[in-house]
């Protein structure tokens, strides 16, 4: 989904997660109305990555494991490596036991986002929603985060919410929202962009 800020892109993600209930029409996943799923079951199948990573005042290990509480240490480390976070974690004084402070205040924006990506990877959800996940990062951190996202979405359905045309070009299908309506639906034909990014996108009806 690509549209200016305030057009309703993030609202679609909230409807998929049933943070808002549908008042008219329907939102479906694989042809099934989201209201037919138990709320916990629905949310177990979705990994959400926001523009501002939400971290807790606990260790990095626990922050990653929040994605799946029964994840083993080996799975946590594997997720961190896939998210390109392992190397900087290992350089911290306490490694994976480093407490990151409230909202991850001790880490940079790119580091926080890679921890959030590791959490999403360990969750192993089949549907991934990315809501402006690289906005506001410097070039080096943006490259690292986008590389980590490519690992996250591999083999999964991914919905990208963005106002950046360059990010949108990496999707298989593009939906533009204007005045609350989807007014442009076009298949992505830029094969070079797909080769470069490896990010795919799907959409719920």
Give a structural overview.
- By secondary structure, the chain is an alpha/beta fold.
- 38% of the residues lie in helices and 15% in strands.
- It has helices at residues 9-16, 39-44, 60-65, 73-82, 86-91, 109-123, 139-153, 165-168, 191-197, and strands at 28-29, 32-33, 46-49, 127-131, 157-161, 173-178, 181-187.
- The strands form three sheets. A three-stranded parallel beta sheet has the order 3-4-5, sandwiched between helices.
- The longest helix is centred in the middle third of the chain and has 15 residues, at 109-123.
- The two termini are 13 Å apart.
Key words describing this protein structure:
205 residues, alpha/beta, 3-stranded parallel sheet, two-stranded antiparallel sheet, 9 helices, globular, disordered C terminus
Sequence-ordered SSE layout with sheet pairings:
Layout: H1 9-16, E1 28-29, E2 32-33, H2 39-44, E3 46-49, H3 60-65, H4 73-82, H5 86-91, H6 109-123, E4 127-131, H7 139-153, E5 157-161, H8 165-168, E6 173-178, E7 181-187, H9 191-197
Parallel strand pairs: 3-4, 4-5
Antiparallel strand pairs: 1-2, 6-7
Helix pairs in contact: 4-6, 6-7
> What pattern of helices and strands is seen along the backbone?
HEEHEHHHHEHEHEEH
Count of helical regions: 9
- How many angstroms does the end-to-end distance come to? 13 Å
Strand content: 15-25%
Whole-angstrom Rg: 17 Å
Helix content: 25-40%
Major sheet characteristics? 3 strands, parallel
Alpha-beta classification: alpha/beta
Compute the number of strand runs: 7
Overall 3D shape: globular
